[in-house]
Design brief:
The protein is of the alpha+beta class and about 450 residues long. The protein has 12 helices and 16 strands. Keywords: Repeat.
């Protein structure tokens, strides 16, 4: 009995050691809420933390990442969508409970019970219209979907159910017909790569991470960065055995998630890092190694990391005019709306489709056929056809001048800034982390 009691106490200790401790502090910083996560190190814990915060549409303006052996501590400065501290107790409780893995509960997925379509292929004007027309013709009701385009490629996750029964599509003949017709649509007349269509009954764990994986597998990163691309540099710090990744670009929602997601899926581990956002510009620095503990070993690998990170940042860039559709859902709605876009020369660069209580709540980012901003006259013509009250223009794009990194205090442009950072930033961000902890 005594041994059994000791074993129970040991098990409790193991649970406590392996369950992240989360502290949420509104007192330390005047402009943001501090979320501190302290835990034993485990694979993917940084991505898990960032994913939880970004899924709540929280903005991470600063962050300090530190891993010491088998232990890690992350500190995130977060605000809500309006730039305010977190005051909603339900949000705070959700963050705290999300890291409590000791209860072994599985978070419910609202998309369970739907059929999942994964599509990749060559992007072209009107492609989305053709996809939704096929699904409407095959009596498939689109419940939710996300569409990304980048570098001439398209990736989409579409959740559907049978219109008549309202259930997942399980008929093997119908599934084969869906796959065949969508594959033909995706191939078009000049597909330079093989289009892919997959039908599954298993809901994707995280839609946006899966979209990154799909575009990565489709090699959308195979493009030489141009003058407007994010600035990404990678150098080795031989003395410490790290590879140092620096990212400098315009800030936007979920930027941190996209970068960490890509590093994680490329099998790199982030040991230390800092995130700093000033105005509309973001600077991110990560000290990484392979999962086996080694740094980047070749020039080809270094270039591939740069290409993949640039692609991960660009995929979600808000190109074009943002249009929000809010109207009663009906059979063929998406097919009609996207056909109207196509007939007016609008190309959908990105889309988020959802339904709630029989209402369609859709967001489209549209450009002209060349990828440039659409004229206001064309937008108004489209709105008149779809419904002025149903289709609203939100957040039209604005031109923001690119920051000049040649004016940085380090001098010598990006390369100079990176070389100076190698000797000081690890100590500096660890000092900042220490001061935050002590002040808390």
């Amino acid at each position: 009995m005594e041994w059994s009691g000791c074993l129970n106490e040991y098990e409790k200790l193991v649970i406590r050691m392996n369950t992240p401790r989360v502290e949420i502090d509104n007192a330390v910083c005047a402009s943001s809420t501090l979320v501190k996560i302290d835990s034993a190190q485990k694979d993917g814990i940084l991505l898990e933390a960032v994913q939880i915060l970004t899924d709540l549409n929280l903005s991470i303006k600063k962050a300090y990442i530190s891993s010491d052996g088998r232990w890690f501590m992350d500190v995130f400065h977060v605000t809500d969508q309006n730039g305010n501290k977190l005051t909603d107790e339900s949000v705070i409780n959700y963050i705290e409970q999300s890291f409590n893995t000791s209860n072994n509960t599985v978070k419910p997925n609202e998309l369970n019970g739907l059929t999942v379509l994964e599509l990749t292929g060559t992007d072209r004007l009107g492609l989305l219209s053709e996809v939704f027309a096929v699904l409407s013709d095959l009596q498939c009701n689109v419940v939710e979907s996300k569409v990304w385009t980048h570098n001439g490629r398209i990736a989409s996750l579409i959740y559907v159910k049978d219109i008549d029964s309202g259930c997942p599509i399980e008929d093997s003949l119908k599934i084969s017909k869906i796959e065949s017709r969508l594959r033909n649509v995706l191939k078009g007349d000049n597909d330079i790569r093989s289009a892919k269509t997959t039908v599954s009954s298993i809901a994707v764990t995280h839609t946006e991470r899966r979209l990154h994986q799909m575009m990565f597998a489709d090699r959308d990163y195979e493009k030489k960065p141009d003058d407007d691309s994010p600035i990404v540099t990678v150098q080795n710090w031989a003395e410490r055995g790290y590879s140092v990744v620096n990212v400098m670009c315009k800030d936007r929602p979920k930027l941190f998630f996209d970068v960490v997601c890509t590093l994680t899926d490329m099998q790199y581990v982030v040991f230390h890092g800092t995130i700093d956002t000033t105005g509309n510009q973001a600077q991110q620095e990560f000290y990484i190694r392979h999962s086996d503990g080694t740094p980047i070993s070749s020039e080809a690998e270094r270039q591939r990391v740069i290409q993949c990170l640039v692609a991960s940042i660009e995929r979600r860039a808000s190109e074009g005019v943002r249009l929000e559709l809010c109207t009663a859902d009906r059979q063929g709605l998406l097919s009609d709306v996207t056909r109207t876009f196509r007939e007016n020369g609008l190309n959908v660069a990105r889309a988020e489709i959802s339904t709630k209580d029989d209402m369609a709540l859709d967001t489209f980012y549209v450009t002209d056929t060349a990828g440039y901003q659409v004229s206001s006259k064309t937008i108004e013509e489209v709105r008149e056809r779809i419904g002025l009250d149903d289709l609203i223009v939100k957040d039209p794009p604005c031109s923001i001048p690119k920051v000049s990194w040649d004016d940085s205090p380090a001098g010598g442009g990006v390369g100079g800034a990176v070389l100076v950072s190698l000797g000081s930033l690890v100590r500096r961000h660890l000092y900042s982390l220490s001061s935050i902890i002590h002040r808390a």
